[in-house]
Amino acid sequence: xxxxxxxxxxxxxxxxxxxxxxxxxxxxxxxxxxxxxxxxxxxxxxxxxxxxxxxxxxxxxxxxxxxxxxxxxxxxxxxxxxxxxxxxxxxxxxxxxxxxxxxxxxxxxxxxxxxxxxxxxxxxxxxxxxxxxxxxxxxxxxxxxxxxxxxxxxxxxxxxxxxxxxxxxxxxxxxxxxxxxxxxxxxxxxxxxxxxxxxxxxxxxxxxxxxxxxxxxxxxxxxxxxxxxxxxxxxxxxxxxxxxxxxxxxxxxxxxxxxxxxxxxxxxxxxxxxxxxxxxxxxxxxxxxxxxxxxxxxxxxxxxxxxxxxxxxxxxxxxxxxxxxxxxxxxxxxxxxxxxxxxxxxxxxxxxxxxxxxxxxxxxxxxxxxxxxxxxxxxxxxxxxxxxxxxxxxxxxxxxxxxxxxxxxxxxxxxxxxxxxxxxx
Length: 425
Ligand SMILES: Nc1ncnc2c1ncn2[C@@H]1O[C@H](COP(=O)(O)OP(=O)(O)OP(=O)(O)O)[C@@H](O)[C@H]1O
Ligand SMILES: O=P(O)(O)O[C@@H]1[C@H](O)[C@H](O)[C@@H](OP(=O)(O)O)[C@H](OP(=O)(O)O)[C@H]1O
What we know:
The chain is α+β, with helices and mostly antiparallel strands. Helices cover 37% and strands 13% of the residues. It has 18 helices and eleven strands. The chain has helices at 6-9, 12-31, 57-60, 97-103, 116-120, 128-134, 150-153, 156-162, 182-191, 241-249, 255-264, 271-276, 281-291, 294-297, 321-332, 336-355, 357-360, 412-424; strands at residues 168-170, 175-179, 203-209, 212-218, 228-234, 299-305, 311-312, 362-363, 368-373, 378-383, 389-390. The strands form three sheets. A five-stranded antiparallel β-sheet has the order 7-6-5-9-10. A four-stranded antiparallel β-sheet has the order 1-2-4-3, with helices on one face. A two-stranded antiparallel ribbon has the order 8-11. Helix 16 (336-355) runs antiparallel to helix 18. The radius of gyration is 21 Å and the shape is globular. The relative contact order is 0.14. Residues 1-21, 23-50, 52-91 and 97-167 have low confidence and may be disordered. The structure holds adenosine-5'-triphosphate (ATP) and D-MYO-inositol-1,4,5-triphosphate. Residues 49-53, 130, 133-134, 139, 167, 176, 201, 217-221, 229, 231, 368, 370, 383-384, 386 line the site of adenosine-5'-triphosphate (ATP). Pfam families: IPK.
């Protein structure tokens, strides 16, 4: 355990960083032949979301697993740690020539931020809260690993985790950067001219850092003190129809997803999948949807971060409204004011969705509602449009009817209604 000065205990984030920093040091020492300091709390680490993130060690020179969370767990259960490799490459981070032209030349849109080199000397620019969220993912990722230090820094499980730790970074000035994806940038651009604008982080265009391009977004946690955060992935499915077609026509067996699957339920894969030790991405995503509340309630809780910085992801198997209610009451600590503020924001969102042209003609897949509150404010935001697609041929969606292959319905409003219903119950 690190030496902790008394005043550091008053600052949990700092204390947590110190503890984790010490663990990282001891882990590195062990790799170099020294002793291994096992966590003293006996808990797995809670991890949550944030695949597309940039390793802040790039910016600050520190190592991002220092900020991972030690898991105190919702209802005392341990969250699972998953590992694996993504075999399917993604093209995020480098705009195509057309998209770059559309968004403006990335490198000519420099934000007023520090360069990587400057930032290395300025660790105070880190965003401790966001970095907790971003560093607590359970999933594997095809992202480019920007950090040459990761092999040294991460343990076996963390080696796998590190493959997805490169997507987002934090900057000063009330903005966060997310690795560029053409689909997401186009959506955000559209959303800035839509009725949904007040429910989406403000989009400030693109910026280049090193060899990658990023989307500049309003930091939704800016100005909040010890915020409590919940990420709910919306919709009755989290896979695109394209993923289903690909699984049929050009199946790519993902061993990382197979591993994640058997960790939760060894009997879930078919005999063939067991033999191949792999599942297609569609199969994994569909399994996640049907074993959580996604398929039935139209949303699932991906993770919750409490005010002390602990991140909890033990909601994978939640399927009923009463379980969701329990989680939400825990998240809000039963505070009526907070619950009411969320409720009224969600009603406003529902109205805005009704009048949104963007919503009418987009298939919204894998997008989240981010619930954020502190002691005097609560709000809900729509985030993550990386898999949100415009519909062809002036087609429009209802968002409130079940999905059947080909209809492209996403069930977003089914999820929103479930959340609102839960609140009434
Ligand atoms: N504008 C923002 N301001 C503050 N925090 C944000 C913002 N956008 C995202 N986050 C945080 O980062 C997390 C991940 O964001 P997002 O879902 O957009 O990333 P992703 O890499 O696409 O993740 P996923 O693994 O869900 O596909 C969110 O759960 C949220 O906590
Ligand atoms: O639920 P988990 O266990 O965290 O699994 C991940 C989750 O379903 C993400 O939504 C998905 O990314 P997309 O939605 O962006 O496809 C990711 O795929 P990936 O590994 O291909 O990134 C999965 O690994």
